[in-house]
Write a structure and sequence with these properties.
By secondary structure, this protein is α+β, with helices and mostly antiparallel strands. The chain has helices at 2-12, 102-105, 108-114, 135-148, 209-219, 221-245, and strands at residues 20-24, 28-31, 38-46, 55-61, 64-75, 78-91, 94-98, 152-156, 160-163, 166-173, 180-190, 193-206. The strands form three sheets. The chain has a six-stranded mixed beta sheet with strand order 2-12-11-4-7-8.
Length: 246
């Protein structure tokens, strides 16, 4: 219920002259073994005359990493990786919500500049790549795979105005959401121009024993692998001993 108190405090705050203000119901998500995903409420208000049509867009970007996309082809009786493209600075999570479809509220040049929408998301290719002729196909495959995993998405009409100038939407995080620092941006658009913007950080991290295991696997992979092998050997030895006694 913490989000409800946050929302009530937000609504009871003095009026501001800022064109757009927004906040999240929670700025930190802890991932445990029972984590099945989370919903975060984003709410805010716009300061615009009622006779002017105002639209709101929310963009959520997760931690960026290099990603290699591989293409498999059939070689005789088997399938094997025959080509690949490496993309640098690829968001692990990317989600866009808006009051209306993006193409109806902003020109492509603005969407490209702010990287709003999957068609306008910048996915730079690694500087040493030489096979750049098929980049659009690999880019489409990357986005398609991330959408299938629930990590990328667009939801036009997902932001609703619930009162004079007040809006809300729900950010849905899947169970496989990557850990790291997220950037949540809200934009106010009027007549195809950005008239206000707001930034909120979101932190997603593992908690408890899951955090210890993740830290060990990330920062000391050799030790993590050695421990994993040792545990597997001990488990096998223990199972064998039990069956021998039986």
């Amino acid at each position: 219920m913490r989000w409800l108190w946050t929302l009530l405090a937000f609504l009871s705050a003095p009026a501001t002259a800022a064109p757009l203000v927004a906040d999240l119901s929670d700025h930190q998500i802890a991932i445990r073994s029972t984590f099945t995903g989370a919903d975060i409420l984003l709410f805010g208000s716009v300061n615009a005359p009622e006779e002017i049509k105002a639209d709101v867009v929310v963009v959520v970007r997760g931690p960026e990493r290099a990603v290699t996309v591989r293409k498999k082809s059939q070689i005789g009786p088997i399938w094997a990786n025959t080509s690949s493209i490496r993309f640098d600075r690829t968001p692990g999570f990317y989600w866009v919500a808006s009051t209306e479809p993006l193409g109806t509220i902003a020109p492509p040049t603005l969407l490209d500049r702010q990287q709003i929408g999957l068609n306008h998301l910048s996915l730079p290719v690694h500087s040493e790549e030489t096979n750049t002729d098929n980049v659009p196909g690999f880019r489409s495959a990357l986005i398609r795979n991330r959408m299938a995993e629930g990590l990328y998405g667009e939801e036009p009409d997902a932001i609703r105005f619930v009162g004079p100038g007040l809006f809300r939407t729900t950010i849905r995080l899947p169970a496989n959401v990557p850990v790291g620092t997220y950037r949540v941006q809200a934009f106010l658009l009027i007549d195809g121009k950005i008239e206000g913007a707001h930034f909120s950080p979101l932190f997603i991290d593992k908690s408890g024993i899951e955090r210890e295991i993740y830290t060990l696997a990330t920062h000391q992979p050799f030790l993590y692998g050695a421990l994993a092998v040792a545990i597997a050997v001990l488990a096998g030895w223990g199972a064998g001993a039990i069956f021998r006694k039986g």
